Amino acid sequence: MLYLDQLKQKYQLIIGYIGIITIGAGIVLIIPLISLFFYTDEVSQGIYFIIPSAVSIVLGILMSNRLKNRKVISLTVQDGGIIVVLSWIVAIIISSFPFTLSGMLNFTQAVFECTSGWTTTGLSVVDVTKAPKVFLLWRSIMQFFGGAGLAVVMLSTIIGPLGMGLYTAEARSDKLLPNIKKTTSLIMKIYSGYIIAGIILYVIAGMSIFDAINHSIAAVSTGGFSTKVNSIGEYKSPIIELITIILMILGTTNFAAHYLILKGKVKRFFRIGEVRFMFFLMSLSIPLLAFYTLRGLYTSLGRSFRIAIFEATSAISTTGFSTVTYTNWNDFGIFVMVILMIIGGGTGSTAGGLKLYRAYVLIKSLLWNIKGFLLPKYGVKENYVFRPDGKYYVKDNHLVELGNFLIMYVITYFIGVCIITLSGYPLRDAMFEIASSLSTVGLSVGVTSANVSGVVLWTESVLMLLGRLEFFVIFYTIAKVIKDTKLVLKK
């Protein structure tokens, strides 16, 4: 009975914390209304945000009342997972109402668009040529908070011991400072600082202030939502492309690695294994794309390399911006892009994918095994990699965790590809689109559109959420909720 009482108290707290996030989601819904001061012809669109915002805030207040006079109970990482998963689902549904109330999108499309926004994927079914500015800004705001970490940002200042559970559940790893509150604050400063710098550089390069705000947020959050049909390619500007490349690399780099640079420890930054691995992959894939895919499409080798650099960076950073279409690319080029998207960006960043760190350590473990056969019978060698926090000795249980994640990723990827091919699309297109969804990239070969079936959109929506919260958090959460529900029902 004591355990059941504690379990009920825990879920009261969980509901309360989700209520706080629901209030936060309602407040965030008001932010894009700032644009109405500058685009007064869109004032009538404001009601589509005000109504769901008010409902969300009232609902959140009712839920958060459960926190009143509750004694503090230590919540586990699994409890944090429940808060994170349910908070993301609630935020996505609330965020979809402006699109449905306005008639711009149906429910399936709206949920897809908001899932893409909050997970910083960038796949879209919105016609940016017709969408009001307030809706375009709303998409970018979702990517801003999604990239920073929805639950961590909204709860880190009040939840104390639960902070680490939320931090881990939202696919974060390295702590920059001793406690989560200070870590989150520093991340937000770094994150916002890069976005502001990006806005300034974009404006100097010739973008309008509105486009600069949206593209800078999308680049640093590795989100990829654009205000233009042809994405960054619309501008045909090498300077804008260079700015975007820099912002994408910053966004996909571990925040703990940024902290090293800010502290002046540049040498330590370039010793980090996943950073070196990222630049190695880029140096390998860019020439391959330029010579074996793009040289046959463009007469200038310089043009081929310019496109290859941008597209490879967009893929491995999981941003999803593009300067060209992929419909005329050969199978080799598509294959390279799929591999880059699957590997993805850095841990502890805004990027998705398998993550550079996991791929790097798994490849290193293969090399360590080969070397192990060459060692003397009783030779002992400790294997390590460099991370932002220093030298990390890799144990067998850590390799098992990474291997399990890889297996889960591959199985999920295979299921997704099967669903898309059964929906009538070629295998090549299915492999590309599912890699883009699962790794929260946002690049597309044309499968994802307003005209695509609901089966495809719901499949991609689920995969985007799985990719952002990294599988195990969601699976463990579902298992725990089912287990706790059975315990309560038995009594």
UniProtKB/TrEMBL annotation:
Enumerate the InterPro entries for this protein.
Cat_transpt (IPR003445)
Q: Where in the cell is it found?
A: Cell membrane
Pfam families in alphabetical order: TrkH
> Source taxonomy lineage?
Bacteria, Bacillati, Bacillota, Clostridia, Eubacteriales
Q: Where are the transmembrane segments?
A: 12-39, 45-63, 75-97, 144-169, 190-210, 239-262, 274-294, 332-354, 399-422, 462-482
| Organism whose genome encodes this protein | Clostridium homopropionicum DSM 5847
Q: Which domain of life is it from?
A: Bacteria
Biological process (GO) annotations?
metal ion transport
Question: What is the protein's major site of localization?
Answer: membrane
Q: Name one GO molecular function term.
A: monoatomic cation transmembrane transporter activity
| Keywords from the named record | Cell membrane, Ion transport, Membrane, Transmembrane, Transmembrane helix, Transport
Which protein family is it in? Belongs to the TrkH potassium transport family.
Q: What is this protein called?
A: Trk system potassium uptake protein TrkG
